[in-house]
Structures are given as structure tokens and as C-alpha cells.
Amino acid sequence: MIGKYIKRYKWSYLLGIITLFVVDLLGLLIPEYTGRITDGLKYKTMDFQGVLHMIGLILAVGGLMALGRFLWRIFIFGGARKIEYALRNDMFEHLTTLSTRYFNENKTGDFMAHFTSDLSAIRMALGPAVVTTFDAIIMTVMVVVKMVFYVDLRLTLLACIPMIFIMIGGIYFGSKVEKRFTKKQEAFSKMTDEVQESISGVRVVKAFVQEEKEIESFAGTNLNNKKANLSVVKLQATVLPLLDLLIGISSVITILYGGKLVLDGAITPGKFVAFNSYIGMLVWPMIAAGDSINMLSQGLASMKRIRKIFMEQPEIIDGPECDNEITELYGEIALNNLTFAYKEGSSPVLQDISVKIPQGNTLAILGRTGSGKTTIANLLLRLYDVEDGMITFDKNSIRKIPLSVLREQIAYVPQDNFLFSDTIQTNIAFGVRKLRDIEEEEKMKLFPSRKERLEAHLESDFMKTESKADSIYQDLDMVQEAAKAACIHENIMDFPRQYSTMVGERGVTVSGGQKQRSSIARALMKDAPILILDDALSAVDTNTEEQILRNLKENRKNKTTIIIAHRISTIQNADNILVLEEGKVAEYGSHEQLMKEQGIYAQLYEKQQLEKQLEKE
Amino acid sequence: MSRKEIEYEKSIHGSVFLRLMKYAIPYLPMMVLAFILVLALTGLELLRPALIGRAVDLFTMDGTMDDIKFTAIIYGVALLLSFVFNFLQTWILQLTGQNIIYNIRQELFEHIHKLSLRFFDITPVGKIVTRVTNDVEALHEMYANILVKLLKNIVKIIGLAIVMLSMNVRIALFGFSLLPFIVALTWIFKRTSRLTYRITRTRITAINTYLSEHLSGMKLIQIFAREKEKNAEFKQKSKGLFRANYREMMVFAIFRPLMYILSIIALVIIVAVGGDSVIKGAVTVGTLYTFIQYISSFFEPIQELAEQFGTLQSAMASAEKIFTLLDEPITVKNPEHPTLVEEIKGRIEFDHVWFAYEGENWILKDVSFVIEPGQSVAFVGATGAGKSSILNLIGRYYDIQKGRILVDGIDIKELKKEDLRKAIGQVQQDVFIFTGDVMSNIRLKSDNITEDEAIQAARYVNADHFIENLSNTYYEAVTERGATFSAGQRQLLSFARTLAYNPSILVMDEATANIDTETEQLIQEALEKLMQGRTTIMVAHRLSTIQHADKIIVMHKGELREMGTHQELLENNGIYKKLYELQLAGEH
Cβ contacts (< 8 Å) between A607 and chain B: which residues? Predict the structure, then answer.
């Protein structure tokens, strides 16, 4: 998988490796030059002029090496950064294609760990590990060649025996490190998760005085993380000294066998000394080899985890039956014997539901908790797939409609009113913001301005709510129209920064009712042929609810609306009312019809009437 | 930023380091031991070439094979000692580093949980998470590696300088002439790398915040078909991080080769000055050779030092962020000498309470009322009237600016927060579900609540009906934020959670809003039983749910406007009457 990214930067890598090679070769020249100077001075064959000549050479080579060192960093480290960047983007893009089911089953904290630790481990494997690997190979080859041809083949062979152990040990420890590293990453991601949850749920924690328990539980996770780290460290603490030990054994062999060779007169003492310094020169490449084994194996472990995400196939896609000619919906919806279960084999959430909604009608769905109301909304939005033909829009099966068209043409107000950390204006315009605008806006933030540099320099207040470049690209009038229809305009105007007010993460600084109404405004802004309100007026007081319903009636003339609710007052003016009971249609018809049926709806209505009577007393 | 702030910033840099060192104090003996081991290791490193030299000497002095064997044995022993020392030193330092990291992380986490709700209102979760996880992690390298090696390198540099000076002052001084440049370059590097590093960290935090939010909001993005736009937005953020990373890399790519050039120039200076001296006969070739060897090993620790300073700087940057969070004042504090109460009965009094989240932006203006133990009170009013704030103030999640809030006649500022909050059961608007199972979401992490009690509580609020239908009933795994439960089910769970804790004061914030009428009926029943002997305070918009309250308080724009029973208020012909009539009209 990673291959395709490397391929993209193959020239960069190739140039980098060539530069690395040249730098290593040049590196051998400088000791040679200094050697020539010492020899020349010793035997008085070189005058000061000659010394200056050699100095010129040293400076030239040194300058070239410095340039080379600069270049391979740009080529290889730069390439690795580019791959990391591409991977990060592709991973996010891939995640946006995955289904709701996948996100329900996986934790945000895990994804976060993939984006941070794993990507960085992969980058290390593609950058520094590449450099150390090639450097180690080039150096080893050059040194071994010198050993064999300049000193002695048998001595080289004997002295290299420990090196074989280094290779074997490297492979053994490499796989062990990988395993422990995986555990370490998992421990870290588990800790990230726990902190994330503990902070997100801080209101519950405080209300139930669970701080002590949270801290206690975190201490366990924290300890677990420490232990996982130490288990990696234990290996690393063994590996490097062991490497040194093995290389030292090479020296011992050299002293013994090399010494014998000298005593036998097979090699000169000078060559013995040279051989020893060659052994010394092997130390760095061997350590580098160990490092790169570590980095490569950690990178590999991370790659495996990331591959798992990329292998995840999006469940909901435009299939072969998709008809790209469909570019808009008119708002006629039909459910035909709709049956659905979230998991295969488990009991169905919806059973045999058939309803037709003509274009421009309003359908209300009523039912108790867990009766499958929200599931219908989820299915209309095609967050889950149903059997072909069970849901049709304008007589086209839902699968025939391109996914993007389907969702563009449906405006939805979800139960949990999720707002992004952004201005209210941007949040309301969420569904209609143009790609170009977003790019323009982000571009403004891309380069560190003088301000950002200064801030980076003085940064101390990370709590400061950032004031974004005020969204000058969005049509404020339209946003205000939507906000007025959702009865949130006046609240927004009461905020000090009005439409530029930042709402916190998940919009914590605004009340539940305000969030809900912002969410309604966001949906109205789309002006789509189909609108689904999923229990969207629950946190709104009756007064406002009435007003919103009136606005809707006006705004949604000739457009299809589906209202899921509990309150009769919210739904009684709908053209048709669908009462769900344990996933099945219990009752269906207009308010008058259902009243005549004397069923659940009529009972509910009477109950609420009774309450009214009571209030009158 | 004013000049004053800049100076203030400068003055705290030193203190950041000192504060970091404080965490190392308990481990000082271990760190000293590691330092000694490192010095011993350096000694052994120097010994090994000397042993080879001895072997060479043996050849010229007609040594025997036995002498060589003896040398090899000493070498072997030195080798084994190196191995042991090296292992011990790494292990000790890493263990110390991990321990310190553990402590800092724990302290940070504990501090965060002491902060008032206000902090969480205005700080994104992602930022806090990054502090506890990644920023603390960045300190590890400093404790585990940098500190000791920094010392070692300083010792090495001083030692080499002394040796070189004693050999030949002139050559040595010429060799040192580059020191100002090295120091200057290092200083520039330090500054630049620190700046780029900070920009990088800021952008990492930004992208993490973005990711955490957008991954949890993915459903919404897909429903609104915003994938393309969000991808573009993410790409831009990602590019911002990439540029920062690239800039950071460039700083290193430029600095390292520059340092190398300086070392080459130093070498050249030594060769020129030394060569001249050799030609004039002032020094021997041997001395020059040694100088050439030394000058390169003189530069090594200096370069390492620069890099270690770099790591130290980035650790300091993280440390500053951590300390900023640690210094975040705990605004809602426990009193020094809290009034201890056996049992809170539930009399609540607001005595001319003024409250604002910020400055003079009053949310509550001069609010006074008394609720007797066992009474049930309903707050009524438009959104933003201040009802939710009153509920939050009773549990002292925020401190008021003027006036007093009394529980059982005691100012809540005199009570321990834990005692106060334990007596209050809160049903919140946003039901937060923790990862775990249904059972753990009712009991939370408390050991005092048995499983039976939890099941009873669930039964009491009629939550058992849907729980029993789950395939693993009470042990059904729950994912993050309870994504698999409907709002009503989550609401029921939160009721059970509240009931399990058996509070004497019950606080409900629009709690019945998301439950269908039928279920609401069941909950009403449960509540009526529950309200017996408990003070109940609720905020709801449906008049039907509040008409049975002993007292109704009407809030309007932060002021208490009306107070009384349902009947009294209707007769009063005020805001309540209006709200009531609108409700009636709305149902036609």
C-alpha cells in the first residue's frame, strides 16, 4: 500500500541516496588529506605552500559535503514529509467515505492515534530509517573491502563472525520490538481515549462527584502506559549495549588472531593498528542498522494498522444501478414493505412498513422510544442500505439516486444537535458553503502571519478563543433568513459578536434549545425539497415551537416535510400521521381519521387534552 | 502583546526549567548514579584503544602470545563491564523518565478535574487531551536522555579544552577562535528551531482538535454531503502542518551542514597554524596529529550539545503549555475549614444572587427565593431566562459574584463541594454515555452501588424495559457517546444513573424533553414516588409536567418575576398566564 506513495517520490529518494553515497565517498577523502599533510611534514617533503594547497582541497571537499548533507535531507526527509502529508489527507478522505456503522463501532480516540503516532512512525521509517539504512550499508561495504584487500581475508572473516550475530539479533529483536511497540501504541491510544472521554463527560463526572474515581481509574491507565513503554525500553536498553558487546568481541578476536599473525610475521603492526580502526569504523553502521531496524519495524507496525483503515470498504456507495442523470428530487417518497435490522440475524427494528408521501405533503411519525422512528430517517438518508425497492424517491429506488444528490436534496435536523467549533454563521451555512470559499478562507490561515509568529513566541494563552477571519464569503442575508425562520435570530443578535460568535466544541456555550434551533436553521438554509426533523423541537418552548411550525408551513409550501415528534401539538397539522409501535405500523392517517380510529393516537390526544383540562382548573 | 508581557514571558523561561527540575528531585540519587555510570563508561571507552596500543607496544618489545592473551582478557573484562554499565544506565534513566512522566501526567489529570466548569465551557476537549498525552510525552526524552548526556558533554568539553591548552597554548587558542561562531550559530539555531517547533505544535493541536470534532461529527458531514468541502478544509489544515514540519526540517538541514563547515574550518586552522609551527620546528608532528584528532572530538560534544539544547527547547515549549494548564486557577475552591454536615436535608435559599459568566453580563440579577426541604419547584421562562444557570449554581459549578446561596442554612461556599454535590442528583440536558456497558453507565465508577441497586434504579425509572431487550441486557457494550441508543433511551439511562446515587436534592434540566408521552407518563409516576421527601428543582417547558410542583418560579431575562402555585400565578395575570395561554393555543 505504501509502495504507491514511495513511487510518487522515487526520484527524490533516488537523488537523496545518490547524494548520501557521494557524501560518504567524500568523507573518506578528508582523513586521507590530513594523512598526506602529516606524512609530508614528517618527511619534510611539504612546505607551507603545499600545506595551503591541501587546506584548499579540504575546504572544497568540506563545502561539497555540507551541500550534500543539506541536499539529502531535503530529498529524503522532505520526501517522507510529503508522503506523511499525502497519507494524512488520503486517510481523512477515506474516512469520510466510510459508513455510520463503522464510526459507531470504532472510537474517535483510536483514529486520533492513527493520525498522530502511526503517521509519525511511518514517516520515521520512510525518512531517518532510509538514511541510516543506506548509510550503514555503504559504510559497511567500504570498510569491509578495505579490510579484505589491505589487511587479511582470514582475519576479516573471523572478526566478522560477531557481525553475523548482529544480523540475527537484529531480526529477532526487531520482531519483538514491533510487538511491544504495538502494545505501547495501544496503551497510549487507550490513554488518549480515556482522557478524551473523561474530559468530554466532565459534567457527569462533576455532578456525580466521580473525580476521585476518574483519577484512580486514570492512574491505572497511566501505569499501564508506563509499563508498556518500559517493556519497549527494556529491549532497547539491551539491544544497543549488546551491539557494542558483539563489536567488542570482534576486537578481542583481532587482538588474539591478529596478534598471532603479527607475531608470525604475516602482517605488519601498522596493518594491525589499521584493522583495529576499521573495526571501530564498523561500530556506527551497526548501531545505525539497529536504529533502522527499530524504526523500520515500528513503521511497519503502524503501516499495518493504517492499512486496516484503508482496507475498510465503504458500505454505502453509488452502485452499478446508480443513474447519474438524476440530479434533483421532487419530494415524492414511498416506503414499500420496508423491513430493516441493524445487524444481520438480529431482530428487525422496522417491519413491513408501507407509506406513500406525495410531493409537498407533511408526514408526522409518532411512537415511543425505540419504536424505529429515527431509523426511518437514517434509512431515508441512506446511512444504511435496505433491500432494493423498499425505499423510492420519485418512483426511483434509493440506490438509483447518486448518494450526493440524495443527501443534497434532503435537509435533516438530527436529534443530537452537533455544532462545529466555528462561528454561528459558518455553522448555519454548513450545508451550502462553497468549496472555493473554504479554500480561500483556509489559505488566509496557511502562512504564519507576523501575528502568529509573535504568538508562537509568546504563546501562553491556549485558552484564547481564536477569532477567525470573519467569514466574508458567505451570504449573511441568507443565513439570517434561515435563522429568523428557526427563531434563533434574536438570540444570536443578543450575543456580543452576533453571527461571528464562536460556539465551543459541540457548541457548549449555547443552551440546548439554542443549539437545536441553530440546527434547524442549518437545515432550512439548504432549502431542500425534502426536510426531516428528527425530534427537533423537543428543547424548544411551546411558544417558539408554534412560531417555528408557522414559519415552516410558509417556507415549505409544495415541499415534502417529515416530522418525528412526541408532542401532538407538533404533529397534528401534518397531512398524515404514522404511529409506530415496535417497528410496525400501528396506525396511519390524518388527524381526523386517527381520532376516529380510537387507537393509540386518539388515546395520546385525549391524554394531552386531559392535561389541558387539568390545567384549566 | 505589550512589552511588559514579553518581559514577563522571558522571566518565566528560567522558572520553567527549574520547575521541570523539581520533578526530578525525588529521583536525584538514581540520576546521579546514572551519571557516574556514564562517566565510567566514558573511561572504559578511552581504555579500550589504550589496550590496543598496549598490544602494538608488545609487538615492538618482543612480547609473547601469553602477553597478548592477557591483554585480550583485560579487554574482554572491560567489554563486559561496558555492557553492564550501559544497560544499567539506560534502564535507570528510562525508568526515571517514565516515573516522572507518570507523575506529571497524574498531577495534570488531577488538576484538570479540579477546574471549574467554566474552563471546560471555553476550552476545546482536543486541546486538553493533547496536553495530557502528547505534550507530557515530549518531556520524556528530556528526563531520560538529555539531562545526563548534557552533563557528560559539558565535562567532556572542559576536559578536552584543558588537555589541549596544556599541550600547546597557541594552537589551542587558534583552535578555540571559532568558539564564538559556534556559540552564535547554536544560539540562532536554538531560537529558530524553537519558533518553528512552536508553530508546529500549535498546528498539531489545531489539526487534532479538528480531527476529534470531525470524526465524531462524521455522520453529520455525510448527511449534509459535505465530504468534498470537509476534505478540502482538512487538506488546507494538513498543508499548514506540512509547511510547518517542512520548515522545521529546513532549519535542521541548514544548521547541521553549517556546523560541519565550521568544524572543517577549525580543522583547517589547526593544520595551518600547526603546520607552520612544525615547519618552524616549534612542535612535533605527533603533537599536530593529536590536535587534529582532538579538535574533531572537541566538536562532537558541542554539536551534540546544540541538538540536546534543541530537544530541551521543545521539551520546554511543551512544559510551558503544561504549566500554563497546571497554573490555571481553581476558581471554585473548597473552603479551608469546611462546615461538616451529617446529612443535607434540602432547604435551598437564594439570597440576592447576582451571577455572570463574564464581566457585567448578568445572567441572574438579584434573585432571591427559598425552597423548603421536600418541596418541588419548577422554573419557567423563555430560553436564556437563566433557569439552567440556577440549577448549575446550586451544585456550585460556578461561583456567584454577589449574594449568597444557602443549603440547609449554610452558605454553599462553606461546604465541601463533594458533600454538596453528592446530595444533589442531576439529570442533564445532554446525556453523556461512557464507553463500557449499560451497568457501568448506571453505576459509573462507584463501588458503593451494587449491581442489584443499579438494576432496581433502572426498573424504577422504567429503563429496564429497553435494557432487557438488549442482547446482553445490562452488560451490553456501549460505544462512545452512546451512538447506538436513541435519545430517549439515553435519557432513561441517565435517570437510572441519577436514582442509583440516591440524592436528597433532585435537579432536572429539561430532562423529560426527549421522551415520548407514554414513557414520560411512566417517568412522572416514578418521579412522584421519588420526590417524596426530596427537594426537587426542575426546568421544563411543558406546563403539564410542572403544574404539580409546590411552587412555580417564573424567570424572565435573569430576573425572578413571579412565584407561587399554579393557581396563584394564573390569578396573578402575569407572564405565567401568558405562557399558559400560549400553550393552550398551541395545542389546537
Answer: 517, 521
- Most B CBs within 10 A among A375, A453, A542, hence the mutation to make, goes to A542
Q: Give the separation between CA B350 and CA B389, rounded to whole angstroms.
A: 13
Alpha-carbon span A498 to A441, nearest angstrom? 20
Q: Are A34 and B271 in contact (CB under 8 A)?
A: yes
- pTM of the prediction? 0.66
In CATH terms, A321-409+530-535+559-617 corresponds, of 3.40.50.300, 3.20.20.80, 3.40.228.10, 3.40.50.150, to 3.40.50.300
**Are A407 and B109 in contact (CB < 8 Å)?**
no
* pLDDT confidence of residue A75: 92
- Residue from the list B199, B432, B586 with its beta carbon closest to the beta carbon of A452: B199
In angstroms, the CA A60 to CA A46 distance is 20
Strands A530-534 and A502-503: unpaired
Same fold, A139-313 and A321-409+530-535+559-617: no
What is the rounded CA–CA span in Å between residue B569 and residue B517?
26
B541 versus A474: which is more confidently predicted?
B541
Max CA pair span of chain A? 123
Measured in whole angstroms, the distance separating CA B331 from the mean position of its chain's CA atoms is: 18
Instruction: Say how many C-beta atoms besides its own lie within 10 A of residue B252's C-beta.
Output: 18
pLDDT digits (tens, 9 = 90+) for A576-614: 888 888 788 878 888 878 778 777 787 777 766 665 554
Half-sphere exposure of B324 (CA within 13 A, CB side): 20
Distance to chain A for B324, nearest Cα, Å? 7
Fold of A413-448+470-527: Rossmann fold (3.40.50)
- Per-residue pLDDT band at B5 (split at 50, 70, 90): very low
A494 in contact with chain B, both atoms CB, cutoff 8 A: yes
The ranges of chain A with pLDDT < 50 are 456-473, 506-508, 614-617
What's A506-571 look like in SS3?
HHCCCCHHHHHHHHHHHHHCCCCCEEEEECCCCCCCHHHHHHHHHHHHHHCCCCEEEEEECCHHHH
Our CA-based measurement puts residue A423 at a distance from the nearest CA of chain B, in whole angstroms, of 14
Give the Cα separation of A269 and B80 in Å (integer): 26
Q: Rg of chain A's alpha carbons, rounded to an integer? A: 35
The cell for B399 is: 461561583
A282, A247 contact by CB (below 8 A): yes
Domain A139-313 superfamily per CATH: ABC transporter type 1, transmembrane domain (1.20.1560.10)
The Cα–Cα gap between B547 and B566 comes to 6
Within 1-40 of A, beta carbons closer than 8 Å to B belong to 30, 34, 37-38
Confidence (pLDDT) at A466: 38
Per-residue pLDDT, A63: 92
Q: List the B348-356 sheet strands across, edge first.
A: B362-371, B348-356, B402-407, B410-411
How much is the ipTM here? 0.75
Q: Provide φ and ψ at B444, rounded to 5°.
A: 55, -140
Whether residues A431 and B224 touch (CB distance < 8 A) is answered with: yes
Question: Residues A259, A272: contact at Cβ < 8 Å?
Answer: yes
In angstroms, the CA A81 to CA B552 distance is: 63
A89 interfacial to chain B (CB closer than 8 Å): yes
Domains along chain B with CATH numbers: 3-327 (1.20.1560.10), 348-423+503-586 (3.40.50.300)
- Domain ranges in chain A are 1-97, 139-313, 321-409+530-535+559-617, 413-448+470-527
Contact (CB, 8 A) for B51 and B74: yes
pLDDT (tens digit per residue) in B112-158: 888 888 888 888 888 888 888 888 988 887 887 787 778 878 888 88
